[in-house]
Amino acid sequence: MSGPDTPVGDAVVDAAVASDPVAADVATDAPEVVTVGAATVDRTYHVSNIPAADGGAYADTVEESFGGVGANVAVATARLGRSAGLVARLGDDDVGDRVAVDLDAQPIDDSHVRRKSGTSTHCLVLRDDEGKRSIVTAGDSARTLTLDDSDRAYLFGADATFLTAYNPDRVHQAALELAAHPDAPPFVFDLSGPLAELAGRGAPEATVDRWVETADVFVVGEVAAEAYLGCSGREAALELRDRGAERVASTMGPEGAVLVDDDGVHELPATEVSVVDETGAGDAYVAALIDRWVLGGESAPEAGRFAAAAAACNVAEAGARGGLPTREDVDELLDER
User: Fold this and answer.
1) How distant is the alpha carbon of residue 156 from its chain centre?
2) pLDDT one-digit tens code per residue, 6-37
3) In sequence order, which residues have a C-beta less than 8 Å from that of residue 25 and are 6 or more positions away?
4) Does residue 3 carry a pLDDT above 80?
5) How far apart are CA 20 and CA 2, in angstroms?
6) Exposure string (b/e) for 146-167, b if CB count within 10 Å is 16 or more?
């Protein structure tokens, strides 16, 4: 874990965004994939039901694990055999202590995970018997993340870079400037939640619009697609293509996914397994897409089939990273189908 416990002011952020994207030396030792996003502690309550408004539920067990979209995608990528690194911020509290220990134990580069004053981001997850879940996030470390020159060089030196919409807008503005450079690596953007959930802590609609036109792959789930576009699935994929997206992955959970590229529209089924916990399914899916579609150069149908199987492996176990597979695990599952 690196970085002093020093607050970062708006002036520093503004200067970083305004500087030349490649003013700092490109990090030649950057891993293949660099992800930007949260690393969290997830406290999961196994509940009798997901409560509606003014409703309630009973939790018969409570479990604690580690998550966060940025950390999940980095660890999932490493499990698939790619070198991976994470840019994130932790607070100086006991949650940050535990997350730091976990990240140090993972097969990823955590040298760009910094400890700063404040509370670490953490999640409360309600999960029912069918694996459905609702998530509440708290803590300020993820929403106060900034990119300094070394982070920017790190992103620029990777073979592919991933950002979740949950990152604060100043991070997106710096990343969009990098992505616009002619020598930039492929950028993958995941609209991880509906716009209302992102308000005040993630990418606003105007920034999402820019990612549609800038990202090499734009990923969106059905809930986020409905909120952003008023449609999901195939319609959302086609709408994003019409808005200028280069490649699109529109995911629909057990209903499969629609991938769009220069070769056309590809409707792909999900891989059927007994679902224990849906948490982290999308992160496993995105990591597999980066591995096969972005870096591996496979066709959309091939990459989509692999990604669906990777997500299926993960939902078969509890926790955001409970079933993150190796390539051999995914190939074995595909061979069974």
Assistant:
1) 18
2) 333 343 334 444 455 454 568 888 999 999 99
3) 153
4) no
5) 24
6) bbbbbbbbbbbbbbbbbbbbbb
Q: Kindly report the CA angle at 37 between 238 and 257, in degrees rounded to 5?
A: 25
- Over the stretch 40-70, which tens digit does the pLDDT of each residue have? 998 989 899 999 988 999 999 998 889 999 9
Q: How far is C-alpha 31 from the geometric centre of its chain's CA atoms?
A: 17
Q: Bridge partners of 248?
A: 218, 260
Report how far residue 303's alpha carbon sits from residue 285's, in angstroms, rounded to the nearest whole number.
10
More confident: 322 or 45: 45
Q: Which CATH number fits domain 30-52+59-336: 1.10.3080.10, 3.60.21.10, 2.40.10.220, 3.40.1190.20?
A: 3.40.1190.20
List, as one string, the DSSP characters of 132-199.
-EEEEEE-STGGG----HHHHHHHHHSSEEEEETTS-HHHHHHHHHHHTSTTPPPEEEEE-S-HHHHT
Enter the pTM of the model.
0.88
Inform me whether the pLDDT recorded for 146 exceeds 80. yes
Half-sphere exposure of 251 (CA within 13 A, CB side): 26
Distance, CA of 125 to CA of 136 (rounded, Å): 6
Contact between 89 and 31 under an 8 Å Cβ cutoff? The reply is: no
Q: What are the residue ranges spanned by the domains of the chain?
A: 30-52+59-336
Amino acid 1: pLDDT: 60
d(CA 287, CA 303): 11
